[in-house]
Design brief:
The structure holds two protein chains of two kinds.
Chain A lengths: L2 E4 L3 E5 L4 E8 L5 E7 L6 E7 L4 E4 L2 E6 L4 E6 L8 E9 L4 E4 L3 E6 L1
Parallel strand pairs in A: 2-11
Antiparallel strand pairs in A: 1-3, 3-8, 4-5, 4-9, 6-7, 7-8, 9-10, 9-11
Chain B lengths: L2 E5 L2 E4 L5 E8 L5 E7 L5 E9 L2 E4 L6 E6 L2 E6 L8 E9 L2 E7 L3 E5 L1
Parallel strand pairs in B: 2-11
Antiparallel strand pairs in B: 1-3, 3-8, 4-5, 4-9, 5-6, 7-8, 9-10, 9-11
The chains are: A mainly beta, B mainly beta.
Chain lengths: 112, 113
């Protein structure tokens, strides 16, 4: 079955540094991979989508890479701020079943 | 712009009692609608999805059911709650043909005692 793993349950970094979160998947080649942000007690919010034929996508301080050979996506937040502290979810689009598979998330904490 | 509402925000129910959670979407027509459950520290588990009024697909066998009586209304129900039904329930919508991106509601925290 399709499996998606976010390697770190939690990540703690200093304000101003770049945060890098990892997402690995197995048994499938998704057409799309996405990243969502979830704050405590709230629903996830869509951040970025990257297609299988795209290597990299940027949005302000966010950057996502997608390596279909390694079956991995990296999510970077540059110049991190305490307001970036949240749980970040990776999700892949399983087109044959028409559904999204979510990872369990990485809890990111940015300390001042 | 589109808005998605869920209520109640928090619910404490005894085992064996019924459940009704409601989700409504504004600002769009004919959305795909979804119910997810998120256990603490776990990923999102898809429970039901609907592509139109009265059309419900169930992802996992369970104690819950869903209904879509109107285009932008999605209801999650149970006749008798179990302890294992506790969790954070999220409703989401997507555009037809753009199902890969979903927009989530604020969620309902359910505690079954």
């Amino acid at each position: 079955s399709q499996k998606i793993e976010q390697n770190s349950e939690a990540l703690n970094i200093q304000e101003g540094k770049t945060a890098t979160l990892t997402c690995n998947y197995t048994n499938y080649s998704p057409a799309y991979l996405q990243w969502y942000r979830q704050d405590p007690g709230r629903g996830p919010v869509f951040l970025l989508l990257i297609r299988e034929n795209e290597k990299e996508k940027r949005k302000e301080r966010l950057k996502v890479t997608f390596d279909t050979t390694l079956k991995q996506s990296l999510f970077h937040i540059t110049a991190s701020q305490p307001a970036d502290s949240a749980t970040y979810l990776c999700a892949l689009w399983w087109s044959s079943a028409s559904k999204i598979i979510f990872g369990s998330g990485t809890r990111l904490s940015i300390r001042p | 712009s589109q808005t998605i509402h869920q209520w109640p925000a928090t619910l404490v129910q005894p085992v064996g009692s019924p459940l009704s959670l409601e989700c409504t979407v504004e600002g769009t027509s004919n959305p795909n609608l979804y119910w997810y459950r998120q256990a603490a520290g776990r990923g999102l588990q898809l429970l039901f999805y609907s592509v139109g009024i009265g059309q419900i697909s169930s992802e996992v066998p369970q104690n819950l059911s869903a209904s879509r009586p109107q285009d932008r209304q999605f209801i999650l129900s149970s006749k008798k709650l179990l302890l294992s039904d506790s969790g954070f329930y999220l409703c989401a919508w997507s555009v037809h043909g753009r199902e890969e991106t979903q927009y989530f509601g604020p969620g309902t925290r359910l505690l079954v005692l």
